[in-house]
Batch of 3 targets.
Target 1
Amino acid sequence: MTGRRTRRALPEPARRRLADRATDYGLSRRAFLGLLGGAAGASVLAGCGPGDHPVSYPGQGGKPGYLRWASYPLYLDKDDDGSSPTLTALEAATGIQVLYYEDIDDLATFNANVSSRLDSYQDIGYDLVTLSDWSVKQWSDQVWLAPLDRAAMPNTQGLRPELDNLYYDPDHRWSMPWQQGITVVAWNKAEVPAGVRSVADLWSPQFKGRVAVVAELRETLGPIMRSLGTDPAGVWGDAEFDEALEVLTRQVADGQIISAKGGDMVDLLHEGRAAVGIAYGGDVAFYSDTCGYAVPDEGATYWVDNLVAPVTTSQVDSVERLVDFYYDPEVAATVSAYTYYATPVQGARDAMKDVAPDLVDNDVIFLADDRLANLSLFRELTTVEAARYDMRFKEAVDHL
């Protein structure tokens, strides 16, 4: 287990302010602090599997009073004992018991595992799923999502305005943003004191055999496309994709790139096994003592991960209560203080002054307007494009 697997525990002042927020949901502060002092509350945080969940028909999945949530590792605040302060607060305030599964590593694989059950309206074992932007569009097109009622989630009126009207769900009928991330060029500070400023810098001979990239089509090829003058959010086709993929393939073949991983690639930079690379901004920001990062001068990409309810669940009302709870600015700030990714909630920056004051000016948690202007959300791919591009990208990096 690497250092990346250990995030900060929630500071005591933040725990007490979270307790203050519990009173807004009808729970006494004393009762909440008593629950928070317990081992792990009712939530199950990791290592669980959905295999024993019963098969059901449309809208019949799940059990009243329980909410099964599938998400990524390191995407929800945790204390040293593995419990989540915000989940404990939610459970105490609402009576909903959350079973939290870190079951999503590669989203394409996860989608493949649940698609046949979604098609036949069988329970997939989850009532709430964390999905990337492009996958929300895929699920909504396939009629795999239950609609969400914004009126039942009044706190979502605090959604940051730049996250409205996005192509994958313009009216947020099917989803609400959970976290936003950016792609950056990054470096090990001891190995590269001057840092790098562009994707082209990564191909310098001095970094031969010392480059690592994330193994995600959009987050790796997006910055490469920007370096070639193509906006990933704009109008482009096979020719532009082929040009970017050829750059990646050549750098792999020449031994410039030695690794393509998911979030774990930041460990290579942190430990000095790689000198530079294309990384997730939140990961390298967490390692600010050893790693530097920058949005490339030519621009890069961002993504939005979202909370959705599969059409097979009967627990949509519980999903809406959870979403509304996590759109409280102090709760949102607590999550981002752990994940190091951008919160979608207005007011979270002010709340961060009490949660983790040293992160108030963190520029990957709170994205400035000038930074957002230099970032693109990768455009929607057609079904044919997605299948062909995914296959070719995997062929280029799978052996690394």
Target 2
Amino acid sequence: MDRRHFLQQLSGGAALLSASRVLSGASAKQRIHVGAQTNTWGAPIKTYDHLREVLDALVKLGYEGFETSEQSLDKQAGMAKQCRAAFESRHIEYVAPHCSLRFATSVGIPAQVEALKKTAGYSAEMGAKHLIASGGYARNESDVMPVEQKAELLNQVGKVCQQEGLQFCYHNHTKEFEGDHPEMETLIAQTDPKVVWLNYDVGNAYPIGPKPGDFSAKHYRRILIYHIKDVKQDSNGKQVATDLGEGKIDLRAVVAPLLKSDWKGWLVVEREAGYPNAAEHPEELLRQCRGYIRRIAGV
């Protein structure tokens, strides 16, 4: 091979390598999206006008989507199409309403399923692709649902969400990770992966559950939405929220399996400071979070 042909092949190989790197980076940005929970401004957002102001701020900060309490938008149910147009005009995606379930036998399953079906219907019309719900536990132990019944409730909610065109994600709290045989293991095993996914809150699972990075590596195929946050202990030993990268959670380990795979979903920042009240400087907090995710995940 003469020198000219050698240099041509070398140049072509370098160009191909460069192109593959560009495509790889573009792929990650297409797969992994970054959103924010609006509760940094308080939960719920009390007026629709304020919510639109919050969305304008999130877009300027570089967020692609938002999650909000169902109570932030339930009064707009009759104006779902107008809401969708407002979100689309701002180039921000409605990731999900965040709803609540009651793990209490006195509340029952049918009424809760019906209520969430209604929320799923108008949320889908607003442009949401998911519905998130977290479980509230009864104070009276005799009123707490057995874990098998909780799994059945989640399955039924998942089915009605699917009927409305949404993917249902269950949001964990600390309770599901307590004990030698944590409920989370049973809920994962006894819910249908075709209709029930996870909204894994890394802060709520720490430090009781497995290391967030380990849980992510094991279950990321079941997780559609991550709640990204960091925590530390204050002078009284209480766990409190802090800037991403300044606390105890290894967030690089959490996102590692997502970057090494073809995972598609949302990293949603939940930066709380005084919840349910608004943080003093919400935009400053979320600017730090957005920059940190960009550094560790490249998106």
Target 3
Amino acid sequence: MSSSISPPFEDIAAFAAAAGDRGALLGLDPGTKTLGVAASDLTRLVASTVETVRRKKFRDDASRLVELVDARAAVGLVIGLPLNMDGSEGPRVQSVRAFTRNLAQVVHVPMLLWDERLTTAQAERVLLEADTSRKTRAQVIDQTAAAIILQSALDRLRRL
């Protein structure tokens, strides 16, 4: 892990160079009330759900993410960027960018902002197809979306 703070990457090749080619990555689906968290295996083939963090104060949220990065020896974060369907940026994108800048002050691993359009809808479909109850879906939708975001980035990393 690098001790210097680097800005979040939006270019996956630059992120790959900074994060190296081995080691776990964490995926985040940052919402206003929750943070969905997923993790890859060390070889970066598969993303799996980890947990949903109920958002409180930034300090508490960041502390939990530091714990997860440390526990999994993660070498990078892939953070979902909620672009509008036309690719433009709205208020939620600005919120995620601010969250990521603040997170970079305490989590010292490379971060990639990754297009997350339609991931929540895709997560909902996956959970419905798995015949997941409404209550369970509500509890795991964000971490499932984080896994989809992370898997998308992992698939792209393998094509570099």
